[in-house]
C-alpha cells in the first residue's frame, strides 16, 4: 500500500465527512421500485442535470441477507451508457423475490469516464431498524462493491465480504474488489479503497488459498483504517 502524504490524508479526512454531499450533483442515480405478489420490480435510472454530454458506466447490485443465518447473496448488472444534456434514461430492470426472513439492499452506482463514483442511490427493503439511517438516504456505509468477473473471483468476494461483516467493519468509503485478466487463464484480484491498493494477488482455483487471501486482505484493511485514524488524530493535534 502506498504511504499517505499529508495532503492526501487531509483530503481523505474532508472527503469522509462530505462524501454523501458530493454525489448526484451532475448525474442523479435513482432506484425505482414496485412491489407485487411477494416480488419487487427494480428499475435503475440516471438523469443528466447538466448541459454536457456524459459517457458513463453503471452497476446495479442486489444484496440479500438472511436475518437469521446471516447468509449473503449478491447479484449485479452493469454496463456502459451515454446521456445527452438533461436526458433521463432507464439503465437496468430486475425482479427480486421478497421474504420476511431477508433484508434486501439495492445499490445503484454511476461511474464517470475516470471510473470515479459520481452518482448513487441505495434502498433497503425488510430492514428491522432504520434509526441509524441518514435522513436523505444517501450515506453509504459498509458497502463492498463486487467488480469480479470469474467464479473464483466471486468466491473470493463472498469470503472477503463474510469476514468484513464478521469483523463488524463499516467503512464510509466504498471498498472495491476488482478482477482483471492476467497471464494465461489466471486473473489478478485487487482490494481497493479510495484509490489506495489494500491487497493484490493472482487467483488460484483453491478454496483454502482464497480463504487465506480473504483473511489477509481483511487484516490489511483493518491496518489501513488504523493508520488513517492515527493520521487524522495527528492532524487534529497539530
Automatic annotation (TrEMBL):
- Report which superkingdom the organism of origin falls in: Bacteria
Q: Does the keyword Phosphoprotein apply?
A: no
Question: Where are the membrane-spanning stretches?
Answer: none
Acetylation among the record's keywords?
no
Sorted alphabetically, which InterPro entries does this protein's record hold? CsgH_dom (IPR047726), Curli_assembly_CsgC/AgfC (IPR053722), Curli_CsgE (IPR018900)
The record's keywords, sorted A to Z, are: Signal
Family annotation (Pfam families) = CsgE
Q: What does this protein do?
A: May be involved in the biogenesis of curli organelles.
Protein name according to UniProt: Curli production assembly/transport component CsgE
| Organism listed in the record | Flavobacterium cerinum
Amino acid at each position: 500500500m502506498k504511504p499517505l502524504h499529508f495532503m492526501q490524508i487531509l483530503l481523505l479526512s474532508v472527503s469522509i465527512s462530505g462524501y454523501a454531499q458530493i454525489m448526484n450533483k451532475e448525474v442523479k442515480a435513482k432506484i425505482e421500485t414496485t412491489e407485487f405478489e411477494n416480488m419487487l420490480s427494480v428499475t435503475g435510472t440516471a438523469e443528466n442535470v447538466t448541459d454536457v454530454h456524459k459517457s458513463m458506466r453503471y452497476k446495479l447490485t442486489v444484496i440479500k441477507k438472511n436475518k437469521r443465518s446471516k447468509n449473503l447473496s449478491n447479484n449485479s448488472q452493469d454496463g456502459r451508457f451515454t446521456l445527452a444534456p438533461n436526458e433521463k434514461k432507464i439503465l437496468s430492470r430486475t425482479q427480486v423475490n421478497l421474504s420476511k426472513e431477508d433484508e434486501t439492499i439495492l445499490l445503484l452506482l454511476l461511474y464517470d469516464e475516470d471510473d470515479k463514483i459520481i452518482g448513487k442511490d441505495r434502498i433497503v427493503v425488510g430492514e428491522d431498524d432504520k434509526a441509524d439511517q441518514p435522513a436523505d438516504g444517501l450515506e453509504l456505509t459498509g458497502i463492498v462493491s463486487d467488480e469480479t468477473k470469474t467464479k473464483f473471483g466471486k468466491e473470493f468476494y463472498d469470503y472477503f465480504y463474510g469476514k468484513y461483516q464478521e469483523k463488524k467493519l463499516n467503512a464510509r468509503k466504498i471498498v472495491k474488489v476488482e478482477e482483471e485478466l492476467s497471464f494465461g487463464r489466471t486473473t489478478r484480484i485487487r482490494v481497493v479503497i479510495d484509490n489506495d491498493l489494500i491487497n493484490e494477488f493472482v487467483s488460484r482455483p483453491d478454496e483454502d488459498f482464497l480463504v487465506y487471501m480473504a483473511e489477509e486482505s481483511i487484516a490489511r484493511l483493518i491496518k489501513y483504517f488504523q493508520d488513517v485514524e492515527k493520521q487524522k488524530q495527528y492532524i487534529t493535534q497539530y
